[in-house]
Amino acid sequence: EYAFMGTHEGIVAVQAYPQIRIIDTIAGPLRGGATWRELKSFRHYLYSTSEQGGVRSGLGVADLSTLPDSVRYVGSFAINGIAQYTAHTISIDTARATAYLEGNTGTSSVYMMDLSNPEFPTAIGHFGTAGQLLGFSHRESAADDLVGKFHLAWPAHGQECPRMAHIELALHQK
Prior knowledge:
The protein has 174 residues and is mostly beta strands. 2% of the residues lie in helices and 44% in strands.
């Protein structure tokens, strides 16, 4: 069993069982003061985002197939394919191999990246206007079941860009 933790310096891979030990450290964006990191695994890769710009910013990719010995850093990729390198959160639609990166400093609220080639993710689209979808970047979900008030994005039939819906669900406790 493994744990991956975002730190001020980057990402730390830890073996959690049978004995706790640090396996590897992946340096992350270090410029400035933002320490936020969001991590999601898909297949045997770890994808990371940060609000921090600079070297190794963008969508970070690490190959986990070398565990338990090490973690191989693959690279960082601009989330819009050109020059956008920051995002607050990441959600992954595993059925479509698509990453949704939200809460960035670019002109769009959400950027989408194709993860079909896990070591070379490519920008495939965007939607929304930055700042327009307050709260969306913290509650968007590509595959998780969430209870409460949130926004959900999904591709409409015959279209590549997702549509958004505002959904409110009530939690019923027994």
